[in-house]
Amino acid sequence: MIKTSLFADQEREAKLNKLGDALQVMEQHVDFAALAAEIDLAAPRPSRERGGRPPFPTELMVRVLLIQQLFNLSDEQMEFQLLDRLSFQRFVGLRASSQIPDRTTIWTFKERLIQAGASESVFDAVNRQLSRHGYIARGGQMIDASIVQAPRQSLSKEEKAIVSEGAMPADWKPAKRRQKDVEARWTKKHGKSYFGYKVSANADKRYTLVRKLKVSTASEHDTMHFEDVLDCANTSRDILADKGYVDGEREARLSKQGWRLHIQRKGSKDKPLSAVQQRRNHRIARTRARIEHVFAGLAQMGGKALRCIGLARARLHLNWKVAAYNLQRLVYMKEAGVEAF
């Protein structure tokens, strides 16, 4: 016979704490009120002059979006989990409330950030918290890029030609326009075709935290955003990158500015790499490969695919995804006792 208890909710929460709730651990190390304040500064809350139900607090919505990124949930799944899951309710502060942000509320909050040009606000705010904890960028920086796939589009040759010029076919109805991603692009990597966007990232060597990022269409070459993601705040002038970033003119220019570039060399059929160059590539790869761990972490959180349409929404999604990764990494380092300088 199953026992009933008037205190079942409290008993479950006690057991949850004993087992270890990762969200409660995150709460101990992250100042969510500060994150919300910076987002409100970048994207002010809507006016209530016309009345209506007041919006949910920004801090609550920040917590919702971070959970969404950590667990790779759609807006619809997020609504369901907030109704169903104890740990989520407790983390966002809705344990004793019958009201929860529904899918439309979550979508509206994201659109508010996009319209205000505040897609990067949470990433910047998280990085400021990392610095306050003492985890400043140290030891040099590693630069790389990764493709983030979007749902493939079924277009005729004529439609593809129009879309490639940055326009939409005139005969598309509004409903169809909303479902077609005309900003994502095709690219090839290792002989395989991909459709979507690309995130270029800079991670520091000491803590493998992402310090800079740039979101673009997949067709833009990695090397185009090399200087966009340079981190001048890093304590070292060393830069590590793979052979996709070889550019003699840029390397000469940056070297004159005091940067020490460690970029792997690529050989060709007519001019293979020498033994010295191969050893140099191996030395660089041993350290540079650590940024692949960052992309692997993002992939585990669903960061290799998109559910949204358009570059603006992809930029918002990936900035929140990387911010969630950095917070997860911060919590790990604090709990593991990784020394901050």
Automatic annotation (TrEMBL):
Name the NCBIfam families on file.
transpos_IS5_4
One Pfam family name is: DDE_Tnp_1
Q: Which GO terms describe its molecular function?
A: DNA binding; transposase activity
Briefly, what is this protein's role? Answer: Involved in the transposition of the insertion sequence IS5.
Q: Which PANTHER family match?
A: TRANSPOSASE INSH FOR INSERTION SEQUENCE ELEMENT IS5A-RELATED
Going by the UniProt record, its keywords in alphabetical order are: DNA recombination, DNA-binding, Transposition
Give every Transposase InsH N-terminal domain span.
13-112
Could you say which protein family the record assigns here? Belongs to the transposase 11 family.
Which biological processes are named by the entry's GO terms? Answer: DNA transposition
Q: What is this protein called?
A: IS5 family transposase
Q: In what residue span(s) does the Transposase IS4-like domain sit?
A: 170-327
InterPro entries linked to this entry: Transpos_IS5 (IPR047959), Transposase_11 (IPR002559), Transposase_InsH_N (IPR008490)
